[in-house]
Amino acid sequence: MPQAPVITAPLLYLLIGSLLYFIGTILVTIACNVPLNDALAAVDPSSAEAGRVWTNYLKNWTTWNHVRTIAALAAAASFIVAICRASSSVDDLAESGTSSPTMSATLPDKPEDWPRQFEQRLNAGDLDALITLYEPEAHFVNKSGKTLGGRDAI
Asked: Is the same domain home to 45 and 75?
């Protein structure tokens, strides 16, 4: 039976930031600011109606611009928290309490470094260090075809 995806704190903050940015900046711009710009552009500046349109434009456009600004700042803060949470979980993983010399080595920065570190840890017989290369909820299929889920099972 397939397992439900695990939503981690960094992923949650990334999702919140994405929604804030999309709804609070892009959709507000499309639905609120652009129609106000179009309405203002359509008015003859010398007409009697121009003063009323300008007053309405200034009040409403400024309000929606503040909404966009606050949403963009909140989205940026959420992205920063996601990055900090993700990097702190990697730091916690590297300092998880084993005295293994290989364990204290950093995790690979680039995907192409992963096989080399896997090989080094496997050849050193350091299974504790080897398992840190896997995500906490990783799945592994052994030779017999059995799927193992999570670091403890792997």
From this structure: yes
